[in-house]
Each structure stands twice: as structure tokens, then as C-alpha cells.
Design brief:
Blueprint lengths: L8 H11 L1 H13 L5 H14 L1 H8 L3 H7 L8 H10 L11
Helix pairs in contact: 1-2, 1-3, 2-3, 4-5, 4-6
């Protein structure tokens, strides 16, 4: 029997985030809904930035590439203005809805 072709989960996720803006938006929205752990938002932003190319995202956000890496690192603590700039550069927007 011929082995099935497969790709690692991380690679498949990056491809999906790069190729489908709606998926990226839902992915980020789900991360934001995890209010118990705010770092989840940074992980999601980091993965979407990797999918689109960190250098390109940094340039569009008018942030130094190293600063973007630092802001989205596991120990990052970016300003809200930085998060807004990053989401704009990713072609996304942050919204607020009433809590359920």
C-alpha cells in the first residue's frame, strides 16, 4: 500500500491562514474569546504574521521587524496601539461585541 501524503499540522495551519482571510479572521476571533489566557491572542497574531511573512507585516505596520518579533513573543507585552497596527497590517480589524 502506498503511504498517504501528509504535512505537519503547523504547516497546514500556516497555509490555511495565508490562503484564506476569512479563516484567519475566525482564528483570531477565537483566540480573543479565550479571555482566561490573553497570551493566546499573541500566539494567533504571531501565526498569522508568519503566514503572511513577518517582514512584510512589520513593514505594513510601520514597526521594526525585531520589534514585531519581540511584541509577539511568548514574553511579549505589546501596547494596544501595536496590536491595532499589527491587525491592520494583517488585513484584519478588532471589534467589540456584548458579552454573552
Amino acid at each position: 500500500m502506498k503511504p498517504r501524503n501528509s504535512i505537519p499540522h503547523e504547516e497546514a495551519l500556516i497555509k490555511e491562514l495565508r490562503d484564506d482571510p476569512e479563516y484567519a479572521a475566525e482564528y483570531l476571533k477565537a483566540a480573543m474569546e479565550d479571555s482566561d489566557e490573553p497570551k493566546v491572542l499573541l500566539v494567533a497574531l504571531r501565526q498569522i504574521a508568519r503566514a503572511q511573512g513577518v517582514a512584510k507585516v512589520a513593514k505594513r505596520a510601520h514597526i521594526e521587524r525585531e520589534s514585531l518579533y519581540r511584541a509577539l513573543s511568548p514574553n511579549g507585552n505589546p501596547r494596544f496601539s501595536t496590536i491595532v497596527a499589527i491587525t491592520k497590517a494583517l488585513g484584519l480589524t478588532l471589534t467589540v461585541e456584548p458579552a454573552r
